[in-house]
């Protein structure tokens, strides 16, 4: 694509252009070659600008370098939008594979793609434009909204509800039983879970994430929330709108999370915890009690030299005795 055309698409100001350039691909500052377009979005990357081999740069302000530049307000966002232009998704036409197994009373909307060896049980409803890729399993009475994408080897247990434009990546399991048992005669007796899972519109769920069904009510993932890979959401949890849940977060049962919450990687949330709106929890932190809205919380310990950490641990073990001396 010609650089002048890219400037038109982005609405940016094109400077330092002597002859129009044919841009073949997009790249990072470090990995760019001649014919590539790259971008710079912050001061910490400016040192890379002078080393890049890219033929042109998208930037927020004019750079002191003799290369063509497209100046825009938000160069990172503009670059992300250009990725969609240069690398469009593969078009999958609406069709149902001959190897798919379709149950009774299944409602399938227009332009739906159902791939090889997909199993769809009785009573399922699938909205227009949805794509279900090979080897996925859709349990009885599931409801799948319009323009949803279900990638290979996804499992939806019965009665799961997906909204519109939901994206479910490979290996996700939604609607499995919650981890619930009671004691009887010295044995662990399984508690039957008959609730539902509701995934609202515009949610994306990363690979190998698991979301358990509620015992009798519902587990809910709110509109616009994005969940990373390898996340565990237990039974009866309710996550609000527009949250970001990063990899390896674990939520125990019946948690409540507000809107616009960010749980960073490996955060652990205890059962029956309430987290308010607009909260950020730093990676590797535990959340053993409720967190009010509009705060940043964390208790993680950054990596340090091992022998130093062992000395700190030794002092920590002596703190109770030291406190007793102060009190006396």
From TrEMBL:
GO cellular component: membrane
Pfam families attached to this UniProt entry: Hexapep, LpxD
Name of protein: UDP-3-O-acylglucosamine N-acyltransferase
Keyword tags: Acyltransferase, Lipid A biosynthesis, Lipid biosynthesis, Lipid metabolism, Repeat, Transferase
Organism: Persephonella marina (strain DSM 14350 / EX-H1)
Similarity comment: family membership: Belongs to the transferase hexapeptide repeat family. LpxD subfamily.
NCBIfam families: lipid_A_lpxD, PRK00892.1
Residue ranges of domain UDP-3-O-[3-hydroxymyristoyl] glucosamine N-acyltransferase non-repeat region in the record: 20-84
């Amino acid at each position: 694509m010609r650089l002048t055309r890219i400037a038109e698409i982005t609405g940016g100001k094109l400077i330092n252009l002597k002859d129009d350039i044919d841009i073949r691909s997009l790249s990072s500052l470090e990995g760019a070659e001649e014919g590539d377009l790259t971008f710079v979005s912050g001061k910490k990357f400016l040192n890379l600008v002078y080393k890049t081999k890219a033929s042109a740069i998208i930037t927020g302000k004019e750079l002191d370098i003799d290369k063509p530049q497209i100046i825009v307000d938000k160069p990172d966002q503009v670059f992300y939008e250009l990725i969609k232009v240069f690398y469009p998704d593969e078009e999958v036409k609406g069709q149902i594979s001959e190897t798919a197994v379709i149950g009774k009373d299944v409602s399938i909307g227009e332009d739906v793609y159902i791939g090889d060896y997909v199993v769809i049980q009785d009573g399922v409803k699938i909205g227009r434009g949805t794509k279900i890729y090979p080897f996925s399993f859709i349990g009885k009475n599931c409801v799948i909204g319009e323009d949803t994408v279900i990638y290979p080897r996804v499992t939806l247990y019965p009665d799961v509800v997906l909204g519109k434009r939901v994206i479910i990546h490979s290996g996700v399991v939604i609607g499995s039983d919650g981890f619930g048992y009671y004691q009887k005669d010295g044995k662990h007796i399984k508690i039957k879970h008959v609730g539902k899972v509701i995934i609202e519109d515009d949610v994306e769920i990363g690979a190998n994430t698991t979301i358990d069904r509620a015992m009798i009510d519902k587990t809910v993932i709110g509109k616009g929330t994005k969940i990373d890979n390898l996340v565990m959401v237990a039974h009866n949890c309710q996550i609000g709108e527009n949250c970001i849940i990063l990899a390896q977060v674990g939520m125990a049962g019946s948690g409540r999370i507000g809107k616009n919450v960010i749980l960073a990687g490996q955060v652990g949330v205890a059962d029956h915890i309430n987290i308010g709106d607009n909260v950020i929890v730093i990676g590797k932190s535990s959340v053993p009690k409720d967190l009010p809205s509009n705060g940043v919380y964390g208790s993680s310990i950054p990596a340090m030299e091992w022998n130093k950490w062992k000395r700190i641990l030794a002092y920590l073990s002596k703190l109770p005795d030291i406190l007793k001396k102060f009190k006396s």
